[in-house]
Amino acid sequence: MKGQDAEHGSLDSRPAREAMTGVHTGRKRKGEQPVVPDTEFTSYYGKPVLNGPVWKSPDVPGYLFLGGVAGASSVLGAGAHATGRNRLAVAAKTGAFGAVTVSLGALIHDLGRPARFLNMLRVFKPTSPMNMGSWLLTAYGPCAGAAALSAVTGRLPRIGALATAGAALTGPAVAAYTAALVSDTAVPAWHDGHRELPYVFTGSAAVGAGGLGLLAAPDREAGPARNLALFGTVLELAAFRRMERRLGMVAEPYRAGKPGGMVRAGEALAVAGVAGATLGRRSRVARALSGAGLLAASALSKWGIFDAGKVSAEDPKYTIVPQRERLRERERGGDGWPAGNGAR
Amino acid sequence: MTTARTPVDPAGDSGYADHPPRMGFFTDTTVCIGCKACEVACKEWNAVPEDGLDLTGMSYDNTVGLGADTWRHVAFIEQRKPIGRQDPGLHHDQDVLTMAEHGTATQPPEAGMTPTTPGAGDDFRWLMASDVCKHCTHAACLDVCPTGSLFRTEFGTVVVQEDICNGCGYCIPACPYGVIDQRKDDGRAWKCTLCYDRLGDGLEPACAKACPTDSIQFGPLDELRERAGRRVEQLHEAGVPEARLYGADPDDGVGGDGAFFLLLDEPEVYGFPPDPVVTTRDLPAMWRHVASAAATLAAGAVAAFLGARKGR
Question: For B196, how many CA atoms within 13 A lie in the half-sphere containing its CB?
């Protein structure tokens, strides 16, 4: 919008008319190629093109975080179960069940009509990640519950082992599908990141589950939790870098403002948590602090991604500029439609 | 009852074996006079609640945009552009914008311009356009709806079943046009139904019925597209080269709109996305990456145990 003001000097002296839109932006027409991609764009009074997400905070970002922790914890719990690390197993399984229970509560609370939450299961619809997620949680939740109950009470060990295996098999999907949930929207920062976000989400889930494990496990059982946190941190950071490079200007909300601050703080905490857990591996306090830091890191990164998406939907720039660029690219390639001519 | 002739047949694809032709809107913005009769008729017929009476300062647009309680929205755009051969209805010797800037209280001696001062000419035009749900061929809202509340009608339109909707809100950010929204005190999602109740009785939608200039035209989509193509040619011949259709191309990112438009400027000037794409086009890729990321997590966890010596 700034570009318009510069071009039409008279507008500067009439603040009340800043809203005037549709003024010719001097955009290059076919044949003239800008040397640098120009971010000049026109909009309707600066209003967003999209109706942004109405999902509430903390319900939905809280679910993105806790669902991830639950899914990855179930895998950690199954591994601990199989390798005889009993205290880690109990902690991971109860943590997973607690996290998924709170998640379900948050998801139902976020509905406009909570009493109708069971309508989620009246169809089976692969085109809707939310529907698939509902079915996934329907399979995962009882497994996580049975695994936790058996681990805590020591009863029905065979059913407990089966449920542990079931939760470990569905857990990674619970941690990963939420990326498709947010990507399958028109929200630019979420949709355009659909290739990398699943890895960012599972990485962040591993960071959180590793943190939970470190908080609860004794020294001689903490190794896998520490390794999982390290793996998660590397995966999340690498996938995020890749996503930012690919998205260009659409990645701005992931780096700027409050959402960007949360993402950065989450990354710093994850690195610090892994370092603390590794250096202070013999210290109970260092382990607990690192674990708490890793959990916070996972939450911050999910919250930051959630809020960044909202920012990218509210600013028409992130919707219009990439689409305009795409059209221009198509015109250059010759398979697009000539500007201002017939069918569009 | 005839089947739609178009190769893209959303109603047939949705399982209607025998169905009426696909119905839609052609909104010719060149003849819109900004009377907002469509907005009023829509609210009246559909009993859409009042959603605030605000003065926005956005020309004559105090509706701002489509939402749960606005299913037709008339956009007003003021431009310093010649209007072609159409009569802008202005006094050619006055610059009303400069006059407005000085306000009504300015004394004639101080005024930069008075009603008798010669102005710059007719470099001013008003664009008005009545926006509505596009009833996309590939509708993201319908695709992502987890309850099946949103459905495809036999007319090829997209409608919310309000007795099913549980207010999950997924359709809202999924729409590439910003059409559907949540009614706050109600919790559910609402949007234009293309007057499904009227269509069933052989009536045209309330907005089209009320439009005094036929800017909003209702009919079988095939016919509307033909008529729109002729109208664009007519305008080009009349010296309005910027006339173009928006949403009429079945090869665009949403497979063409059931409600399309004739515009006089770039789509984003009217608040439309210039190149909308149905988000579910990329869903197969998303599921592949989700599966691969889940497998990566599982592999990472196995490695975490293999890398940890017992007792560490």
Answer: 16
Number of C-beta neighbours around residue B229 at 10 A: 15
Q: Is B136 annotated as a binding residue?
A: yes
Q: A18-56: per-residue pLDDT in tens? A: 434 444 344 434 444 444 445 689 999 999 999 999 999
| Contact call for A320 and B268, based on CB within 8 A | yes
- If you count residue pairs, one on A and one on B, with CB atoms under 8 Å apart, how many are there? 309
CA of residue A12 relative to chain centroid, distance: 40
**B228-285 pLDDT, tens digit each:** 999 999 999 988 999 999 999 999 999 999 999 999 999 999 999 999 999 999 999 9
pLDDT at B309: 74
Residue B73, strand partner residues:
B131
Nearest to A40 by CA among A5, A3, A93, A94: A3
> Top-level CATH class of B10-88+124-277?
alpha beta
A59-316: CATH architecture: Up-down Bundle (1.20)
Interface test with A, best of B66, B290, B292, B305 (most A CBs within 10 A): B290
- pLDDT tens sequence across B44-71: 999 999 988 889 999 999 999 999 999 9
Quote the tokens at residue A200: 């960012």
Q: How many C-beta neighbours within 10 Å does residue B44 have? A: 11
- Is residue A172 within 8 Å of A73, Cβ to Cβ? no
The domain locations on chain B are 10-88+124-277, 280-312
Q: Residue B5's pLDDT is what?
A: 42
The answer to whether the Cβ–Cβ distance between B271 and A47 falls below 8 Å is: yes
C-beta atoms of A23 and B79 within 8 A: yes
Where do the H-state alpha helices sit in chain A? 2-7, 59-82, 86-110, 129-153, 157-183, 188-191, 197-216, 223-247, 252-255, 257-279, 284-314, 316-333
Q: Is A236 exposed, middle or buried (0-12, 13-18, 19+ CB in 10 A)?
A: buried
Cβ A228–B304 below 8 Å, yes or no? yes
Q: pTM of this prediction?
A: 0.87
Contacting residues of A for B174, CB less than 8 Å apart = 184-186
Pairing, β B125-132 against β B72-79: antiparallel
